[in-house]
UniProtKB/TrEMBL annotation:
Residues 6-123 form the VOC domain. This is VOC family protein. The lineage of its organism: Bacteria, Pseudomonadati, Pseudomonadota, Gammaproteobacteria, Alteromonadales. Signal peptide: none annotated. It comes from Pseudoalteromonas rubra. CDD domains: SgaA_N_like. Pfam families: Glyoxalase. PROSITE patterns: VOC (PS51819).
Amino acid sequence: MHLNNPVRYFEIPVADLERAAAFYHSLFGFEFEHAVIDGHDMALFPSHDNAAGITGALVKGDSYVPSKAGARLYFHTEDIDATLLKVLSLGGKVLYPKTSIGGFGWVAEFEDSEGNCIALHEE
């Protein structure tokens, strides 16, 4: 029996690491730690020991191609409406408007500065 959540870490592909880090910093207030790991330029999202959830990085590299296809990452937000307005002000696009998922809250999707589809969740 496996008692841990299955996902531990994520990576978001970027074409321009500085532009992407500025986008996510402006959108969510994240402070990034920059690193080169396995030859890839990375901006590491904040990580807090013993905190719920997972962390990851923005990554630039040959095999990292921004896309709207594929897996969806859901970032928590206290206010989807305000977050989507910020996305638009930062040059992003709303791809899927705020939608109720019943007792699980609300979701929406946006295109980030790199062309990725990123999702939001509000409880």
